[in-house]
């Protein structure tokens, strides 16, 4: 009888954060009375009271807050994706602040000028292209921008591993007219503004596929559906695919690696991108 009397009152007074914590299964209805009492005694917020009682962790509280403010990110308990997605798993870290700073630069210098597509290009392999493209796509989606992330590396694709996507078909299949349709696109459930187009079947002729008119048509069509298009590309030391992509997107961000990429390689990379008729709109030095 006593519980029946307390529960409606506790439920009535519970905050929106409390309701989210209940829905997440982090606290029970029985916990709410203790939390409300602690909140009243200490004069603190509901979430802080729950944390003080040891009922939730700081990660639990931050995730609940992100849901309240519609800011999509992944709790550390979610093991579905690669930990390379630091913007999704550690959105409040100094490292991710760098991605947000780059996002602001691209918004002012590129997106707000009417452009939508950006190629991410590196001189050599293992210089962080996929890492940069993935996290940049995440921070754009967190801003509320409908974002399409395309794996243009049809030689050594990686985005399907980062996002744990089992889709067999992708970009190469679309360009070869063998894709089944819109199912080729993968919306990331926890990040509803982010859609990924994987590389698809590894083809014997990636350059010929990129050179087809339907790739340009694909980017134009995607530009009518999405606010931002991020294109991951193979290193220029492997092929000139990235130059072809840059000529179509018209803008590129250069990805380099600290103590790995030389100044001369960056200079040459910039020249090659510009020779393709594209603008260099950013340079990132990755440290890993």
Automatic annotation (TrEMBL):
Keywords: ATP-binding, Kinase, Nucleotide-binding, Transferase. It comes from the Bacteria. GO terms for molecular function: ATP binding; protein tyrosine kinase activity. The keyword Hydrolase does not apply. GO terms for cellular component: plasma membrane. The keyword Transferase applies. Coiled coil: none annotated. This is Chain length determinant protein tyrosine kinase EpsG. It comes from Methylophilus methylotrophus (Bacterium W3A1).
